[in-house]
């Protein structure tokens, strides 16, 4: 198998779109790593750089101790599974799975033996003489997986392989892929925009946004200890609730509730902002130098789609510089006015209900009005609103009154998060 190492990897396209920024990561032998994030975050570009389908603008990628920057894709020891299966329609399942071996000159009897062995693992024995058009989506995806396994590659790359399947089939295929990984043991990098896939399948999750790595950790670490607002809101279903709050001398105030805090907490927040100012000013200086040394197009870039207006490249150096200058201005204003905004985060299943039999003795109570409900079988989600703020709460159906219209809630003192709304950092 293989260890994969990224060292300061960047990808900049010819139209000056900077798709991946300073990517650093080491993937251990036999590890299953998921790159997760919204569309345009750079995850597929990162995968394609490993495969050799995209050039690396700067930095280095190693498989074991070999830098693969200039190694031909066919010589990298990699097998890739695509979103659209990429099967040859005129070939049978057997021939699709054996094609890479045939190209390498493997004798026919050995090819047939390997294909039969993998087909048994994937439950494809009775489909070997069929063509892709005769198969279901799940069966075609298993053929694509089988083709990768037959190659006995050191590294498996999977680019959103389940996105074309229905919800039930996706769930079963998640288990199938994880089972195959445990059996085959190849180092696997799996790209997905679906955080449920990442949480249920991966040993390690890499959360990305706008080309930057936001957090790296196990599913449990990323869920329980999100490093910033983006990760907290992206990981977890239903999504974490966010409520605007403010820091007073007594604690964090929101609605008509208060989270009591020691006076030292406010001093800590002020110190945090001061350190953020130093970092931001340093970043501004560095960006100004980069722009001076490598002038980038300041004009809008085309989306190349009919009836679409041109839009500013959100990943350009100029956009970063503008954003950081705006953040500096906001932080300076906060410090000068001694008024610290806070973003309070709490997961829907961590909110406590103070109604009826479930009346809570906890402090930090506040009230919300019910807008709607979602029945999920065992659980129910209440969608609530107050002063234009919408949140949700998830509870077992047996524990709640479904007809209630006004809910009294409180925070579990051990299950909430505080974030800086300017930088997004967790406090």
Keywords:
427 residues; six-stranded mixed β-sheet; 20 strands
Would you mind describing this structure in some detail?
With about 425 residues, this protein is α+β, with helices and mostly antiparallel strands. Helices cover about 30% and strands about 30% of the residues. It has a 6-stranded mixed sheet with strand order 6-7-8-3-9-10, sandwiched between helices. The chain has a 5-stranded antiparallel sheet with strand order 13-12-11-14-20. The longest helix is centred in the middle third of the chain and has 31 residues, at about 265-295.
Mean pLDDT across the residues is 88
Rg over alpha carbons:
26 Å
Biggest sheet, strands in spatial order? 6-7-8-3-9-10
Beta strand count = 20
- The gross shape turns out to be flat
**Secondary structural class:** alpha+beta
Contiguous low-pLDDT stretches (5 residues minimum) are 296-312, 356-361
Q: What kind of oligomer do you see? A: single chain
Note the gap between the termini: 40 Å
SSE string, helices as H and strands as E: EEEHEEEHHHEHEHEEHHEEEHHEEEEEEE
Describe the main β-sheet briefly: 6 strands, mixed
Helix content: 25-40%
Strand content: 25-35%
Number of H- or I-type helical stretches:
10
